[in-house]
Specification:
Strand order of the largest sheet: 3-2-1-4
Largest sheet: 4 strands, mixed
Number of strands: 4
Number of helices: 1
Radius of gyration: 15 Å
Structural class: alpha+beta
Order of helices and strands: EEEHE
Shape: elongated
Length: 89
């Protein structure tokens, strides 16, 4: 069995693939920019989160048997708001 961990951080998304013993088999990461539209403001484009996460997962799983993936764990950044509507999802 294989397991995937995804960490959506402040400046990058990090992914890892591990086996049932907890041995890390592969790590893939992608960075994305912080946007500073005004002094004291910091923003990110959620589209960057999605596209970079998918790219990292493609690299991570390129050489593995996807039928063996038994679980995925996801962690996100703290103190962040992401407002979603039908048009943004």
């Amino acid at each position: 069995m294989l397991y995937i961990g995804i960490d959506l951080g402040t400046s990058s998304v990090k992914t890892l693939l591990m086996d049932e013993k907890g041995s890390i088999l592969k790590i893939a990461a992608r960075s994305y920019p912080l946007i500073f539209p005004h002094p004291g403001w910091a923003e990110q484009d959620p589209a960057d989160w999605i596209s970079n996460t998918l790219d990292a997962l493609k690299e991570l799983c390129a050489d593995c048997d996807r039928s063996q993936i038994a679980g995925i764990s996801f962690g996100g950044q703290m103190h962040a708001w992401w407002y979603s509507t039908k048009t943004t999802v």
